[in-house]
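Protein data sheet
==================
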Amino acid sequence: MYVIRLPDGTLRVPRTALADSGTGTGEGRIIAQAYVEIGPEDPDYERLLAESLSEEEMDERRRRWREGDEDLLRTFEEWKADRGDD
């Protein structure tokens, strides 16, 4: 997950949440990743701003990943066909 810079200067920062499901057995732990928004008043803002990407830059990365995935998928399908097993 990346730090995303919104047009108004707000940053969306990934945070991980860890919680117990409430069963009391230690089982059923919940791990989630979500974004929180921070502004210039946050003490980490300047540091995070330096590594942030705009929404347009994120869209461009996704597009490049998808294009790269096509080549990888084609290579895998060729490898799988050469093996001859399911």
